[in-house]
Amino acid sequence: xxxxxxxxxxxxxxxxxxxxxxxxxxxxxxxxxxxxxxxxxxxxxxxxxxxxxxxxxxxxxxxxxxxxxxxxxxxxxxxxxxxxxxxxxxxxxxxxxxxxxxxxxxxxxxxxxxxxxxxxxxxxxxxxxxxxxxxxxxxxxxxxxxxxxxxxxxxxxxxxxxxxxxxxxxxxxxxxxxxxxxxxxxxxxxxxxxxxxxxxxxxxxxxxxxxxxx
Length: 214
What we know:
Elements (H helix, E strand, L loop, with lengths): L4 E12 L2 E12 L2 E6 L6 H9 L6 E6 L2 E2 L4 H7 E4 L11 H11 L6 H10 L15 H15 L3 E5 L7 H16 L3 E5 L10 E6 L7
Parallel strand pairs: 3-8, 3-9, 6-7, 7-8
Antiparallel strand pairs: 1-2, 1-4, 4-5
Helix pairs in contact: 3-4, 3-5, 4-5
């Protein structure tokens, strides 16, 4: 059974200085699908994700959300998209709960206190609710960032190496979160150097750069 694409890329070209990272790149992604972006270091994986978020502009081509160019439907798109990059994007002086409240405020959203606390506990941060992020381990700060991803309620997750800093239990947790999000009709675009166990997931893959460098 085929589903209409929700996110699509058409003829994307990206350059870094005088070097073309990729050109003519395209894909379709439907509800409940995960797109795994593959490629070697420096081949343009993060650059592609930045194009998909709208943080960068392609040399050529366009990204579409529900059939509309994200350049023309920026506000609607950003309400339905959440991005987690290499940096956790959290404030070191704030507690995990305060970080979620801050992120919700930036997005113009109302944060449900009980839901926020249950999300943090679900990610194993129940004992850290009142601690400033600066005293947490890197893995714990990564979990705070993942909690922010969940509390945003976005349909599309764009994740750049989300497993960085996580132990085996954290990786298993992310796998569970991905499955749940996809089962509910969400979409995921991600990069990772670490293996994931995602049997049964509707998975697509795209190669960025030269195959031999992947």
